[in-house]
Amino acid sequence: MKTKMPEILSFISEEAVSRKMTSEEIAVHFGYDKHHFSRKFKEINGFSVAEFLSSLKVEKAIFELDEEKRILDLQERSGFESSGSFTNTLKKYTGSSPRAYKRK
């Protein structure tokens, strides 16, 4: 799996976020068992699949936050299922709520 990791990371960055794939769906896509995939992914990268997906979503949201007029539209486009999830994840990575971050 280690030799496939660049391909896996690229796939997650380019496809999985926009398609709202779960870690299980990503594992199946590459022919791995969900638990084995999750364990090896974290062992190799130092972070979980879920953490990587969240960081990619936050990066996308931050990039668009200054231009977006409605935070709700941005939350949906960035792949977050709820406004609470979006707010909590953005706070975790930036220390600010979406509204406070946008004001900066």
From TrEMBL:
Keyword Transcription regulation among UniProt keywords: yes
Start and end residues of each HTH araC/xylS-type domain: 6-104
Gene Ontology molecular function, alphabetical: DNA-binding transcription factor activity; sequence-specific DNA binding
Pfam families xref list: HTH_18
Biased composition (Polar residues): 80-97
Keywords linked to the UniProt accession: DNA-binding, Transcription, Transcription regulation
Residue span of region Disordered: 79-104
Protein name (record): HTH araC/xylS-type domain-containing protein
